[in-house]
């Protein structure tokens, strides 16, 4: 039976932009407002899963040729690596620092190393979730 | 940072580099790289010899976990330096030899990575001052030995041998850890140096003898003493360079190192003398006795190693008498036993290393090392024959080879000990030289077998796979360097004595004033009437006599039936413990999710419910109904209806749907209570898990109700009700809980402490970042687990390999 999913496909094309943007926004806003690596990663992952559900796996994998296992591994590597970075500066493992930087055009920005750590978390969440969903759905 | 720390770290760094960059290193050069690393380390270590022999001690401390007193302290004194030189020196020779021994088609990266890991761990053992760090390195040597024995893991015997050695040495290691913790309890310090200083103090403690026995268990298992030696012959399944390196020259001597290092601590206890000497002597005899019956050359060398380790061990035991008696001009003579021990340790490494390499050559060139298929090889392999001859004569204790010197000193030590009238030695003291003599007769016999049956007699070309021919030059270099040392040490023993052995003696007997009188000058000739010379001559005569009558007395090896042997005992013990634990585990691991939930809920009920019942902490006041919002009321009704509905749902789809309703309603609750983080997370998690459920449930059969017995259903009902009640109680009590302050105040300053205004995120990313990092790792492992489980099943593999 062929399901008529024109509406779903059309809606997803618009909504996916909003979801992915929201994911990125949540990831960056995490330090001072609700959001963060885990939620950002979750939203991004759920967006990708929505794509998989709407279109078929092959189409999406052609457009996003990542090995999501490696994405997850990269995430773990970044998360642990930022911790090791602190040791280089003779501080306890996983110490973080922050500072205000002035940029042309966008002005004063508050940057932290926690963001790097959170990036690792987000990548792991995306990679793991997508790997799980893909491997379960591909299993016949 | 000084060089001596780098010495420990360099092998690890290179092991890491090899494991990461192996794609860029050609297989041709990797062996050379490892050889170069060990050679450079050896040369660096030799530059320390002048300083150490002047009595200097070089230490370096890196505070690792200062709150627990665990420091990474390297401690380079005479004993450590001697062992380090041995490890790196034999390491470079073995590295060179292995380049030619191992085929280029093997997984050389793994091999050299493990070899470097072992080298680093072994250097760590002999250089660590902190006993817990020492223990860590100690176990690391067991692990790397396991990996190396199982290098040809397609062979069943390799895997079995690796497992056996791992089980025995790690069991010993754990008992040693217990002994170390007792030492810490008694002395209050983890530093070996400080423990030695407090030796007199801890002598009084009730834990002293138990600690002594436990530490010795660690040493005996590692150094293959009776009855733990059974792992060493099985470990011969490893490639021959590994046998030469780990299982004769270095790792098995870690136990000797431990005994030597702790002699100042335990030496004043008679039990130490009796255990170390007794076990050592019996191992010496048992190893040499059993070596004779072997038909595999490597197994024969393994038993010979067991026996020689027993010899060294017993000498250390006899040396400890000097500490027992205290320092005086009469007791100094007993320290010579310890001197003979470390002297023989070096000699053994030289001749046994050469012999192992000789057997490796035979194995490599002929395809066999079975004595029944060898013979008459002298004419085909004259260079290899020279190695075997010199190695065996040195092992048998004949001049002009270094084994003669240390063997004479061994005999002398046994004769001195016999004269001692304390420790109730006057009755059984004569046994010590007797056992030593009998053992050296057997040693002579198996040395004759190695040389005679392999190189003399008829050639059995029809039994050989390949035509016998001499080995390539590359494989001969390392054993030749070793046999040159064997001869060289005989002629210049005092050079070695002055620069390497004397400083080591000072470490074994730190309370004795001068190293000069501790270390005798080594003489080859003690006069024609010296009893030790006659012991040697008689051993040779008896050995030749026994060798010529070998056939007539060999049946005595069949007296002991197999099912009574130590190996059978060990195997049965393993089988029995496996079946017992399998039976026990099967009782509670039913494979039924409901059962597992029952365990979890019961545990929760006992802990949390029990706390509320007996802790008298439950207090609550009814909530004012006026404050109830209309949204909250609606959400509550939805949650209640959907959760009760789940119980009566017939299809899985309905259950998934109702659970989602439940989850989304809870998310709305979070919004109502102004927790946007939680609400967001809950919403997304809910969506993703719904997709996951739908994907998985496709594979599952329909739900069957009423298949469980009535009794089980009733039990589950009671547990569920109690669980609900407990959670409700916890929720209500949380509102008014006053037993301790909430921890949330600490995080109010998050902006000052962590530079972020979102408290939740500062907790996740900064305050408790370690938790988050490990959670990320766990998540990743879980994802990989799901992936592998499904993919392995898809390939049709993954069945039980046995």
UniProtKB/TrEMBL annotation, chain A:
Report the family membership. Belongs to the CPA3 antiporters (TC 2.A.63) subunit B family.
TM spans (from-to):
7-28, 34-55, 71-91, 111-134
All copies of domain Na+/H+ antiporter MnhB subunit-related protein, residue ranges = 7-131
Q: Which GO terms describe its cellular component?
A: plasma membrane
The way this protein sits in the membrane is described as: Multi-pass membrane protein
What is this protein's name? Answer: Na(+)/H(+) antiporter subunit B
What InterPro entries does the record tag this protein with?
A: CPA3_antiporter_subunitB, MnhB
Q: Where in the cell is it found?
A: Cell membrane
UniProt keyword list = Cell membrane, Membrane, Transmembrane, Transmembrane helix
Q: Show the PANTHER family listed in the entry.
A: NA(+)/H(+) ANTIPORTER SUBUNIT B, NA(+)_H(+) ANTIPORTER SUBUNIT B
Q: One Pfam family, short name please? A: MnhB
